[in-house]
Design goal:
The chain has 292 residues and is mainly α.
């Protein structure tokens, strides 16, 4: 477990360093003082400031997860010598029907909450933004790379780390809490965390991780959490963007003023509804799994 984790983290930061070099080059080409670290930090993931397209930036960022996924997969297979399917599901085959059902449920909930906010809560905060050429390219990049990024996070946090931590834990509570908090910490470098503060964003990220981890334990596999994560990130990429989001895209709507507190409340409502839907459909009987 330790060697696989170290190699995966090494691959992640290796790509990040290479990507940073590329972005610094573009910053230099656009007259930005690369020796001014404060100014550089503010523009380094801003495609407009670097003179590159948002789609190029998105592909560059998501490529990091494709590269890390490749290193993670090889490490699990060659170093740990563990069947890769064993970190996906406890069953002989991946239950794709559950993945697609969860994907559909979360798409419905995500779009419903978006429409509530767009039509009734804060309609003035949205600006329609559609450029056919840019949007089609965004769709292609998102469809190809976002499932890899989202699936990697689920397989690494909810699949691999939770299994490893279960070896030193008497029940499922510690692995669930640890991976949820680690998931929250891993996202604290996002621009949203800096803009809105850790007090709102860390609980959001950690609770999202706990929600997905709980589903993984009840489901005996990551199929449901993968479906939700892919749907969430895919719609976040193509539907909504803002100057504070980590994914700067040519989405359909630009949010001029964000309200993370409202978004958090709507997310909690969506998560509760999703849990009820999955419980009704799959009749989970292993809720005691946390205590085992």
């Amino acid at each position: 477990y330790v060697f696989t984790i170290l190699i995966t983290v090494f691959a992640y930061f290796t790509y990040q360093i290479l990507m940073l070099g590329i972005l610094v080059y573009f910053a230099y080409q656009n007259g930005i003082d690369i020796m001014d670290t404060v100014a550089l930090q503010k523009v380094i993931i801003n495609p407009d400031a670097l003179g590159i397209s948002k789609n190029f930036m998105l592909a560059l960022l998501l490529g990091m997860f494709a590269f890390t996924f490749w290193a993670f997969y090889l490490s699990v297979k060659k170093i740990h010598q563990k069947p890769f399917i064993s970190i996906v599901t406890a069953y002989p085959r991946i239950r794709w029907s559950r993945f697609f059902f969860a994907f559909g449920v979360w798409c419905f909930l995500f779009l419903s909450m978006f429409l509530i906010d767009y039509l009734w809560i804060s309609p003035d905060d949205y600006t329609f933004n559609f450029d056919a050429k840019k949007f089609i390219l965004l769709l292609i990049i998102s469809a190809l790379l976002l499932p890899i990024q989202s699936s990697f996070e689920e397989l690494f946090f909810r699949g691999y780390l939770m299994q490893g931590l279960s070896l030193i834990s008497k029940n499922g509570i510690m692995p669930l809490l640890f991976t949820s908090l680690l998931f929250g910490l891993a996202h604290m470098n996002n621009p949203e965390a800096e803009e809105f503060g850790a007090a709102i964003m860390f609980p959001y990220y950690s609770l999202f991780g706990a929600f997905l981890g709980l589903l993984t334990l009840w489901n005996n596999g990551v199929e449901l959490s993968m479906g939700i994560h892919v749907a969430n990130n895919l719609l976040s990429s193509i539907l909504i963007t803002s100057e504070n989001t980590v994914l700067q895209t040519d989405a359909l709507f630009i949010v001029k003023q964000e309200n993370p507190s409202n978004d958090f409340i709507l997310w909690i409502f969506s998560a509760i509804l999703a849990l009820l839907v999955f419980q009704y459909k799959y009749k989970f009987k292993n809720h005691i799994q946390l205590l085992k």
